[in-house]
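Troubleshooting log. The previous run stalled partway through. Resubmitting the same two chains, unchanged.
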Amino acid sequence: MTAHAYAPPGFEITLSKRWFVKDGHTYDAYVKDGGYGALKKVLKLQPAEVIDTVKRANLRGRGGAGFAAGVKWGFVPKDSEKPKYLVVNADESEPGTYKDRYVLARDPHMMLEGAAIAAYAIGAHQIYVYARGEFGLPYRRLTAAIQEAYDKGVFGSSAQKSGYQLECQPHRGAGAYICGEETALLESLEGKIGRPRLKPPFPAVVGAFGGPTIINNVETLACVPLIFSRGLEWFLKQGSPNNGGPKLICLSGHVEHPGVYEVPNGYPCNELLKLAGGVWRGRKLKAVIPGGSSTPLLVPKRCKALAKPGQPEAEWPLETDVALDFDNLKLAGSMFGSAGMMVLDDSTCMVRSLSTLANFYAHESCGQCTPCREGSGWVAKIARRIEAGQGTDADLGTLEAAARHMLGTTICPLADALAMPVLSFLQKFRPEFEEHIRAKGCRVAPYDVHPANNTFWEDSPR
Amino acid sequence: MARVLTADTVAEIEKLFPRYPTRLAVLGPAIHLTQRQLGHVSDDAALELAALLGTPVTRVKEMVSFYTMYYDRPVGRHVVRICRNLACQSRGADQVIAKAESVLGVHCGQTTADGRVTLEHEECLAACGTGPALWCDDNLVENLNEDKLEKLLAGLQ
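Second attempt completed without errors. Output:
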C-alpha cells in the first residue's frame, strides 16, 4: 500500500483491490479473495438469466461508448450456424487512459473471469483477448494468467467441470490506435489492416470470422464478477442512477498525485481533484479533459445545464464540479469516454495542446474516409502553424469548417474524436488562438521536465 | 526465394494455426515472431510468410506498412519510442525528446550510424500517470527526466 490513497475515504475498493497486494496478479491471490466463485455460480444459471442480471446491473461499457453491456449481449442471436466469439478489447490507446494496463498487469484473473461469464452468457466457446502491441508487462502477465487458468481448469474442454467448453487466446496488436475501434479490432484480429467496417451489420450479428461477436472493454469485464459475487443490489449501490458499479478513473497531467482512482460512478469531479492533491505546484486549474483526448474540455466556469431549476446564477455548479458518470458529463457538454482525465493548469498553452492532439489523430487516421484522412491533416497543419507563429486571420475559420466537415461524415468516430476537441478548444479558448496569430508565436516556453516520481504506478518495480 | 525463417520460427507459427479459424488470422502474430528472429520483415521473409499462410504477399506487405511496430527495413538493436502526447507533454516530454535526439545525434524516425538505437515518437503508451514515458525492448521506462534518460541510453549496447 502506498502512502497516498487512490480512493475516497471509507470507500471499499474492489476493482483495484489486488493492485495493492504483493503477487495480486496470480490465480492464488484471486481465488483467496473468492475469485472464480462467480463463474461457478453463473455456469449453473441459464444464459438468459445471466444477461438479464447484467442488464439490471446497469453496467455500462468502460471503453468509451458507455453502452449497456447486458443489452449488447442480448443482441447476439440465440441460434447461429457460425461459431460465436467473445473478444476482449485490451487495445487501450486513448490518450489519457491507462487503467486497463493495471487490470492486465496486476489483476488479470478478474477480467478473465468476467470474460468467461460473458462468453457463457452469449454462447461463445472461444475468447480472444486483443491487447495493444506496446503492452509489455501487461501482455506477459495476461498470457501467464491465461495459462494458469487453463492449468486450473477454468478454461478447457469443460470449464470448472461444467461440461461447457471455453478456450482463450491472447492476441497482440502492433501499434495502431484505430484498432481500439471494435470493427477495426476485428479486422486486425483476422490478420488484416485495421480499417473500421460499415455498420450494420453490427458485430453482435456478424463479427469475428463472420460469427456473432461481442467486444467488451477490459474494465467492463472486470466488473462482471462483482455483479454475481457481491450481488445486484450491492453493484447498483456502488454507482449512480443508470450507471452501475465502481469506476476506475485515470488522472494525469497537472495534479499532485496522478494515478488510477477507484470511485463510485457519479463521484464529483472537484472532489476527485482534491483526492489527487489538487492542481500541482499551487497553480490554478485551467481545464479538464474528462474522458480521454477526444472528449470536450471542462472549465471552472458556472454551468447552467448542471444547475437546479430556479437556482441563481451565482450558485450554479462549475463545469468541473460535475458528477462523473456518462449522463452527467453529457449534460455538462462533454463525455465520460474512457475516463482518461487530463488536468491542465493555468500555465498551459491551449494552442500547443490542440496541436499535439491534432497531430495524434492525423497520425492515427486509417485513411479510409476522406473527411478524416484529409481533415485531420488540415487541422494538424493549421494548429501547428498557429503555434509556430505562422497563423493567418483566416485560419480559425478554416479550422472550424474542417472540424465541422468531419463530424458524422465517416465510417467510424475517429474523425469526430478530433472534431470535438477542435470545436471545444475554439469555443472555450478562442482568444488564445487569436493572440498567437496576432503576436506571431507562442509566449509559453517548452514545459519543464517534472515527473511525478510515483514509482508505485510504474511497471518495473513490481 | 531464399528461405530465411528458422525451423523454430516456422514451428511456432504453425503452433498457432489451431487457435484461429483461418490461417490469415495468424499473420499478425507471425510477423511478430518473424521480427523476433530477424528484427524486420525482409522481402524474402514476406514471401515466405505469404506462402506459409496461403495469402498474397501484398497482404503481408500491407500489414507491415500499416502497423507502427512492424518494420520493412532493418532497425537498430534497440527501438526507443518516446511518448509525445498530451499527458507526457504536460510533464515535459518535449524536452526529454530533444535530449534523446541530442544524445543520440539522430532525429525521431532515424537510427544511429552504429545501428545501436532507432529513435521513434510514440503516440501515447497508456502510461499517462507516470509520464514522461518511453518504451524500449518491450518494457516501459517511466517518470523520465534528462538524467534517467541519459543513463538508459548509455546502457543500451
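Takeaways: Residues 9 and 96 of chain B are 37 Å apart (CA to CA). Residues 27-38 of chain B form the longest helix (12 residues).
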